Amino acid sequence: MRRFFVGQHHTKQALVCLEVGLTVELDPQQSKHAWKVLRLTKGQQVELVDGSGKMAIGSIEQLKPIMRVQIDEVTVIPPLTPRLTLACAMPKGGRADDMVNQLCQLGLDELIPINTARSVVEPGQNKLDRFERIMVEASKQCGRSHSMVIHPVMQLEDLASLAFDEKRIGVPDGDTMGTADAKFKTILVLIGPEGGFTDEEEQWASQQGFKAWQFAPNVLRIETAAIGCVAILRSNVKRH
């Protein structure tokens, strides 16, 4: 069954209400894709998700020029636990696009691009908007119902104001730790740039309560480290 995103996570507009009996209109881009590329037909059933956990099944009432879907059934999907946030220096070019796509598929909840002493990339608004589009397409492909939140760029030291049950920093000489303790409801993982964190940054992280974490035997590229640590922390989570 084909899946479409509705509301603020795709159109930047107000969140669409998904309730049984209501009719929802898709945005022009998704509408055109539905009839021109997917060749859907009137009466066919599709899935609608709003990015906040609601998934609806509905029947197509109209295809052109704007696709309209009458909602027949609504299910609320609970979020994954623990809530997982990655604060990460961003790699260059297409590597960042691929990283966002794969992090979304793996079930990351929030991505915070960070600026460190050795960072070489600081995504602007156009790039962040591109990440958002990649996230939406990846969400439709992998079947997730909760959107991955992509934050504006933060300075490393600004992370001190964020509260988490567990905090880890990926470093080559850290302790080997697997999945997190089940008692933790929120986890923050910190991944540095090419060349790693400076000694001062690692010291700062230690003072902020980050545990030094070695989760691979070799030095990794940014995107490999980001994807690897999220895969480890999501490895014991069953799909709803």
Task: Give structural notes.
By secondary structure, the chain is α/β, with parallel strands linked by helices. It folds into two domains: 3-76, Ribosomal Protein L25, Chain P; 83-233, Alpha/beta knot, CATH 3.40.1280. It is built from six helices and twelve strands. The strands form two sheets. Strands 6, 7, 8, 9, 10, 11 and 12 form a seven-stranded parallel sheet that branches. α3 (93-106) packs parallel to α4 (125-142) and α3 (93-106) packs parallel to α6 (222-233). The longest helix has 18 residues, at 125-142. It is elongated. The chain starts with a strand and ends in a 7-residue tail after the last helix.
Brief digest:
With 240 residues, this protein is α/β, with parallel strands linked by helices.
Outline the secondary-structure elements.
Layout lengths: L2 E3 L2 H4 L11 E3 L2 H10 L7 E5 L4 E9 L5 E9 L6 E6 L4 H14 L3 E6 L9 H18 L6 E2 L3 E2 L10 E10 L10 E6 L7 H9 L3 E3 L8 H12 L7
Parallel strand pairs: 1-3, 6-7, 6-11, 7-8, 7-9, 10-11, 10-12
Antiparallel strand pairs: 2-5, 3-4, 4-5
Helix pairs in contact: 3-4, 3-6
Descriptive key words:
240 residues, alpha/beta, Ribosomal Protein L25, Chain P, Alpha/beta knot, 2 domains, seven-stranded parallel β-sheet, 6 helices, 28% helix
The major beta sheet can be summarized as: 7 strands, parallel
Number of strands: 12
Average pLDDT, rounded to a whole number, is 90
So what's the overall shape? elongated
Overall helicity: 25-40%
The percentage of residues in β strands lies in: 25-35%
Distance between the termini: 18 Å
The residue ranges in which pLDDT falls below 50 over 5 or more consecutive positions are 10-14
Q: How many domains?
A: 2
Tell me the name of the CATH homologous superfamily of the largest domain. SPOUT methyltransferase, trefoil knot domain
Class by alpha and beta content = alpha/beta
N to C succession of SSEs: EHEHEEEEHEHEEEEHEH
